[in-house]
Amino acid sequence: MSVLFIVFLLVFFQKVAFAGIFYPLSQLHPPKKKIERKIPLQKFPELHLEGIVGGKFSMAIINGKYLKLGDKIEGCTVNKIDVTNSSVVLKCRSFNIKLRIDLLKSKEVVEDKIK
Predict the structure, then answer these.
(1) pTM
(2) C-alpha 14: how far from its chain's center?
(3) Which domains does the chain have, with CATH numbers?
């Protein structure tokens, strides 16, 4: 019985000694709290699609400017002009933005319905 106890003590102290060698006590500290860094939201320019002109070279009217494919407005590039769906796809930084004409919110259409 005493032999088993001595073997147990030797194995136990051997593990404790190796733990001190491989994991020095000076390096053991409580886990650090993760610092949350808040990334500010990117503000996109205020763009309004006012109309689309179809033809051989389609053009979009955005903020009162006539733009064709590849033109830039406020840091965004016109990638696609879809005449049938009345939409324009713009590439702003790493995002694609799709603008559409909403006829229900158009002032001219509302005024015509009232008269």
Answers:
(1) 0.54
(2) 53
(3) 49-100 (2.30.30)
